[in-house]
Structures are given as structure tokens and as C-alpha cells.
């Protein structure tokens, strides 16, 4: 009887949290799925059910394919840059934890993660400016001609990857530092007794033991990178100054279809595609980690 009452108390205690989670997280997903199956026009009262017609139209939409390609390049570029760099920086900071500058290093590298996106993007836009930016000034010292970084589609994507990686790096490093601190010292002492150098212990002992941390950081980084928006909106302006036109990304395309073209159902179908892509990549990452763990 007492056991049943404890379970009832626990269920009632957690029920408000579950209700808020369902309303804030689950309900919008279900509503988006519903909207994607309708021709939902803000200006029209008639919102007929059209099934998968929005998704069929997406497949032939050149702008959607361009946005999907750009977003995928940015997301995987951020992942490839962030994970190895965060792992190395976390190892260096962890190695110097006992120094007086240890807490300062951890705080300094985490600051970009909490800086507001728009001011950060404006600062980087000044850095990449073709005429007044310090990057071109620095390259000029070495005789390299100035580049129009933000007015070339390829270089614009590279600039967005740099900005997103700079912002994601602090969080990834902090998580890796926590992972390093959780590793048992006895394992490294045993590796040292076996003749392993510090570099060998890092690659063959620490990195394999940090696979769960790497999985978590990879998933969080990839999800965040696929939702890139403000960075492209501020950095990638076209030659007429229209925001976000130089590099079209998925979230920007969704917002444009919703609030400029009033095609909410069509934009919802884009959101569903983004959800499926992110969910699939997350499951693939979990599967890869499980396969490596079995080996």
C-alpha cells in the first residue's frame, strides 16, 4: 500500500513538468505535422487537406534543394571543425587545470557560446569586411590580395562555418573537460607503465573512453548547426544588402515561405523534412557508436 502511494505521489509530482513539456515540445511537432498535410494559407479561410502534395512540391523546388544543400554543408562543416578542435583544446586545458589560469581559460573559451547571435555575427561581419575588415588587412601584410569574403557564395558558407564553429566550440570543450575529469587516473598510470607516451595514451586510451561524450557533443552540435539562421541572415547578405540571400538555408527558407509568401503548410513540410533529417542522423550516430562498442 505504501509502495503504491509513493508511486502515485511521484506521478503527481512529475505530471506538471510532463504537461509543460508536452505543450511546449510535443504539441508543436504534432501541429507542424498536421499543417504540412494541408494547403494552409494565412490569407485564405479554406485550408483543404492535400496529403503529401507539399512534400511532392518540395522535391521539385530549386530553392528548397539549394537551402538543404547549403544547410547540410554548413552543419557537417561545423561538426568536422568543432569536434576535433574541442577535443584537443579540452585535453590541453585539462592538462593545465592545476595552474592559476585554468579557470580563466575555461571561462574565456565558453564566452562565445553565451554571446548573443546577432552582435556576434555583426562583429564577424566586420572581421570579414572586404574593405575595412582586419582579416584582409592581416592577409595584406603577407602579400595576399583582399578577398570579398561575404559576397562570394562559397566563401560565405566558409565564413558561416567559422562563425558557427566559434560559437559551438566553448560548449563542446566544457563537456569534454568534464569527460576528461571523469576518467580514472589508474588507466593512464597503467598505460604509462606499459610504455605509452602522453600522445599515445591520449589517442588510444582517452579518446576511446570518451566515445559517449563525443556522441553527445556530436548530436548537439549537428542539431544546432542544422538550425543555422541568424548567422546566415546577418553574414550572407547579397550585393543589394538583402539579408540571407547570398546563402539560403532551411530555417530562413521556412520563415520566408511562412511570413512572406503566406504558405504555412508548405513551410511546415520543410520543417518536417528537417526533423526527419536530424532524427535520422542522430539515430545513425547512436548506431555507429553501438557498433564500435561491440567491436
Shape: globular
Number of domains: 1
- Supply the number of helical segments: 13
Task: Bin the strand percentage.
Answer: under 5%
Key attributes of the depicted protein:
single chain, 295 residues, mainly alpha, MetI-like fold, 0% strand, globular
Topology of this structure?
Blueprint: H1 2-36, H2 53-59, H3 62-95, H4 102-114, H5 117-127, H6 134-141, H7 153-182, H8 185-193, H9 198-209, H10 211-226, H11 230-235, H12 250-259, H13 264-294
Helix pairs in contact: 1-13, 3-7, 3-10, 4-7, 7-10, 8-9, 10-13, 12-13
Keywords: Cell membrane, Membrane, Sugar transport, Transmembrane, Transmembrane helix, Transport
Membrane topology: Multi-pass membrane protein
Subcellular location: Cell membrane
Describe this structure in words.
The structure is a single chain. With 295 residues, the protein is an all-alpha fold. The protein has a single domain (55-294), classed as MetI-like (MetI-like fold), CATH 1.10.3720.10. The chain is 75% helix and 0% strand. The protein has helices at residues 2-36, 53-59, 62-95, 102-114, 117-127, 134-141, 153-182, 185-193, 198-209, 211-226, 230-235, 250-259, 264-294. The chain is globular. Residues 68-285 form the ABC transmembrane type-1 domain. Pfam families: BPD_transp_1. It is found in: Cell membrane. Belongs to the binding-protein-dependent transport system permease family.
Amino acid at each position: 500500500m505504501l509502495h503504491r502511494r509513493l508511486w502515485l505521489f511521484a506521478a503527481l509530482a512529475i505530471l506538471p513538468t510532463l504537461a509543460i513539456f508536452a505543450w511546449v515540445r510535443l504539441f508543436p511537432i504534432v501541429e507542424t505535422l498536421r499543417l504540412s498535410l494541408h494547403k494552409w494559407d494565412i490569407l485564405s479561410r479554406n485550408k483543404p487537406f492535400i496529403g503529401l502534395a507539399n512534400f511532392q512540391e518540395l522535391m521539385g523546388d530549386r530553392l528548397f534543394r539549394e537551402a538543404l544543400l547549403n544547410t547540410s554543408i554548413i552543419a557537417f562543416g561545423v561538426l568536422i571543425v568543432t569536434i576535433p578542435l574541442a577535443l584537443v583544446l579540452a585535453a590541453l586545458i585539462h592538462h593545465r587545470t592545476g595552474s592559476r589560469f585554468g579557470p580563466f581559460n575555461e571561462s574565456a573559451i565558453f564566452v562565445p557560446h553565451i554571446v548573443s547571435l546577432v552582435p556576434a555575427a555583426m562583429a564577424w561581419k566586420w572581421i570579414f569586411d572586404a574593405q575595412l575588415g582586419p582579416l584582409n588587412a592581416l592577409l595584406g601584410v603577407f602579400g595576399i590580395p583582399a578577398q570579398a569574403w561575404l559576397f562570394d557564395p562559397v566563401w560565405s558558407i566558409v565564413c558561416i562555418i567559422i562563425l558557427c564553429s566559434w560559437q559551438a566550440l566553448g560548449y563542446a570543450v566544457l563537456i569534454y573537460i568534464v569527460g576528461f575529469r571523469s576518467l580514472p587516473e589508474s588507466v593512464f598510470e597503467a598505460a604509462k607503465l606499459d610504455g605509452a607516451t602522453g600522445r599515445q595514451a591520449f589517442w588510444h586510451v582517452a579518446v576511446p573512453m570518451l566515445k559517449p561524450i563525443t556522441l553527445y557533443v556530436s548530436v548537439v552540435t549537428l542539431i544546432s548547426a542544422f538550425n543555422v539562421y541568424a548567422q546566415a541572415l546577418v553574414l550572407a547578405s547579397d550585393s543589394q544588402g538583402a539579408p540571407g540571400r547570398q546563402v539560403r538555408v532551411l530555417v530562413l527558407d521556412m520563415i520566408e515561405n511562412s511570413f512572406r509568401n503566406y504558405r504555412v503548410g508548405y513551410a511546415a513540410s520543410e520543417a518536417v523534412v528537417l526533423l526527419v533529417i536530424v532524427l535520422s542522423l542522430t539515430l545513425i550516430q547512436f548506431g555507429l557508436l553501438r557498433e564500435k562498442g561491440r567491436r
